[in-house]
Amino acid sequence: MDKNSDLLPGTLDMLILKAVSLGPLHGYGVLLRIKQISRDALDIPQGSLYPALYRLEHQGLISSEWGESENKRKAKFYKLTPSGRKRLREEAAGWNRLVSAIAAAMDATSEEV
Amino acid sequence: MDQEMRFHLEKHTEDLIRSGMSRREAERLSRIEFGGVEVAQEQCRQAKGVQRFDDLRQDIGYSIRMLRKNPGFTLVAIITIALGIGVNSTVFSVLNSVILKPLAFNEPERIMNIGEVNPTHGSAVPLFSPANYLELVKQQKSFEAVSTYFYLTVKYRKTNDQNEVWQAFSVDGGFFPALGVKPILGRTFVAADMEPNAPPTAILSYGLWQRKFGGDPHIIGQTLSLSKQPTTVIGVMPESFHSPTGYDYAELWIPLSINNTQFQDRSDRYTRVIGRLKPGTTRAQAQNEMNVIAARLAQDYPTTNKGWSIVVTDLAEVVTGPDVRYALLIVFAAGCCVLLVACANVANLLLARASARRREIGIRSALGATRGRIVRQVLTESVILTLAGGAIGVITTYWIIKAVREFKPVNLPRVAELGIDWRVLLFTLSASILAGCVCGIISGLLSTKSDVVTALKDGGSQTSGGRRHARARNFLIVAELSLSLVLLVCAGLLARSFYMLTHQDLGFNSHNVFSANAFPPSQRSWSDMVGFYDKYIERIRQIPGIESAALVTSPPLVGNPISFPFSVKGESLDPSDKVRTDTDSISTDFLKTLNIPLKAGRDIAETDKLNTPKVALVNEALARRYFGSNEKALNREIEILYLGTPLTFQIVGVVGDTKRESLAETTPPSIYLAESQVPWYTASVVARTKSDANEYAKPIQKVLNDLAGDEDLYLKQTLDEGIMKSVAQPRFYSILFASFAGIAVILACVGLYGVISYVTAQRTQEIGIRMALGAQKRDILKMVLGQGMLLVGIGIVIGIVGALGATRFMESFLYSVGTKDLLSYMAVSLLLAAVALFACFIPARRASKADPLVALRYD
């Protein structure tokens, strides 16, 4: 499923959750927003987006609803559920811990060994 | 899904167009960037609910692989469940055939049993007197058919002198319409067949048709010699057609001629009556009509019918009475206990395995499996186990049911209908799945509560799974032990009760006594009958090897006693007096043959003849009840309504009490008349023999044939055999409960052994340390045993408390044993403790023999 991804496994989910947490979006909108909030650095392969969305919905972290898009067409909008919000917090905390650990490791000089 | 992706593509295309591309290029590019739409859709589908099915298939495959890898565990678990479910499904099939299945007739809910009742006369099944039945037929309007029938035997003779005796029902015209079953060959009786001078006809049962005539399709119209009359076969009934009484099995049906003398009798109520309600008539409406008819009869015939009413009951309730239902429910409850013990064992096994697989579970959790997913997998595994066990259990049930149908170890109604039908299969399936779910959920939940990280870090089998596991294991084992104890107590009480029943004073000596029933040639005057009986018993007494012989109407405990209304001369019968008085006609030497003591006065003598004053002996129970003492009864006069005629007798002797109809009841008052003064139309010979009593059947039969021509002896048996037969039911239940208890105890102790072994193995390192620090073999032994016996002790205590409550339901099955019988409780507790001790001893000994060096290094 993640064959073409440059992302670490599990981080795609986290990014989607973050994107949706800022406001309800349809699939294409999630794509754009991730691009936007990562300052254009992250480009999600479009093929893995929808399976990830469906998976997150299956796990009850996001919920979906059909609505009207800005150009008056029918689209499926996703938003964050309370358990999704909780999961986002946990993942974010874990991620930060990991990052600081690696950063500390990378800063080690030969004296500290 | 399609729409969503189309929307996505459209939006992307628009954006590209806005950035300057042509429409065609934009569409192409957006499609390329999206990747395969079908692939994405497939992946979405997987991520959704269809995942469930794939999961299930994955689970099943995984479970089967795991089970195959541990054949020992799998085998033990399957056998355990097979035992538990097998027991239950067998009991349920019996329950099903006897209670749940509707009777094998057409629209059985419309078939009623109609009978006369009188509050002062107890009777197991309400019956009719023949003359009253005729009135019923004339007056009733609620039933579209009513019928009565009699059970008898016919003698079949083939040309080459081959005799067989067949059981038959003689039935009147309403029988087959009332039951509503059509024959598979030929026809049933019509009015012409019922005429007194009609040519004899008969309808065969399916079993007889197959057994004796090989299922010959041309049997209709053939003539058989039945009871010396050429009888034409006019029909064959289907295989599923069984007796409306539930117990008596007829091999053929013959017409009942109503206009014979026995149908004049209005006072003796001995025949069953059934009826089919008219469509639209309810039982209540029929009951109302019966009340009116009964009142009319009481008015028209006050001497015989005053105080009698007519009652309409569902035939099914009469066939399977409340006693049988209650007993079967108790047995079913016991069976459920066995199943619970088996489930607890399997749950323990699964728990032990789950502990061993903590590492694997930890890895799966880390890889993303949710708790629910893991529990689902454990559940799948345990349901597969229980389904396999259940399948084996059902197969065992099939064979057991077949054996029960053949050998009829206990007298249950509708035994011929025993079989496995859809209800039994459904029950077994549900029970298996339920057991599997319970075991799986318990062990699944418990095994996934542990923290993933510690599970991964663990040496795999170092700890015994944490306190939670240990508590659950102990709880299950204690529960098993308690349930086993409850079953043991029940079995013990029943066994003791059976012992009390069979080791009491019968009031007579039954050893080496042969008995057989005979009918003298009928329709003779009393002097003819007396003459016959005199010669009969005299010839029998001359047979070498017979020490003494006598005649009696119905020998104690093996016959069916006859009773007549009796009163003390001068006093009127107290209507609230509900006690039967059994009446026998005995010859001289009866007391001597059976060693019944004479307590006062004299025995029947040769001098008592037809033309001398009529005498009677009474037993102590009667003397005490009506006269106060034995002496006071002598020379008093009593009056007996003998077949409608009042006769007066003088009491000349008082004899000791004997058991009469069953071992469990107290002796009813009995009257003994002189055969030579009041001969009955049947008599049993009782003969005390020097050697094996059964050898005397032939010579006695010969005497009968010499005197009476082609007559047969019936009910040939020794008294001891007959008594054993009469306790077949309590013996059966004793053995049944003992088996259940035995299975439960074995399962519980095997479980105990398993748990103790496992726990001890976990503690191997600890044991090594202790031994290294100076503990002796004995100390280790004591430690392990102590741990085990603590569980046993708690189990026994809880079991005793449970048994005290549960045995309340068994009171009606016990004879002279209380439900709190100390001896039984103590004995079974000691038994369980002993077996459990043995179960704990083996692993304890193994542990104490461990080499400390090896133990310390154990990982």
Summarize, please.
Chain A has 113 residues and is an alpha+beta fold.
Number of helices of chain B: 29
Helix proportion of residues of chain A, in percent?
40-55%
Oligomer: heterodimer
Summarize model confidence as the mean pLDDT of chain B.
Answer: 84
For the termini of chain B, the CA-CA separation is: 54 Å
| Biggest chain-to-chain interface with counts | A-B, 24 and 25 residues
Overall tally of domains of chain A: 1
Side by side, the strands of the main sheet of chain A go 1-3-2
Shape of chain A: elongated
The chain-level structural class of chain A is alpha+beta
Shape descriptor of chain B reads globular
Radius of gyration of chain A: 17 Å
Element string of chain A (H = helix, E = strand): HEHHEEH
What's the helix count of chain A?
4
Content-based structural category of chain B: alpha+beta
Low-pLDDT residue intervals, each spanning 5 or more residues of chain B: 459-464
- Low-pLDDT stretches of chain A are 1-5
What can you see in these coordinates?
- The complex is a heterodimer of chains A (113) and B (859).
- Chain A has four helices and three strands; from the N terminus they run αβααββα.
- Helices cover 54% and strands 14% of the residues of chain A.
- With 113 residues, chain A is α+β, with helices and mostly antiparallel strands.
- In chain B, 53% of the residues lie in helices and 15% in strands.
- Chain B contains 29 helices and 22 strands.
- In chain B, strands 1, 2, 3, 4, 5, 6, 7, 8, 9 and 10 form a ten-stranded mixed β-sheet that branches.
- In chain B, a hairpin with a 2-residue loop joins strand 18 and strand 19.
- The longest helix of chain B is centred in the middle third of the chain and has 37 residues.
- The two termini of chain B are 54 Å apart.
- About 1% of the residues of chain B have low confidence.
- At the A-B interface, helix 3 and strand 3 of A face helix 1 and helix 3 of B.
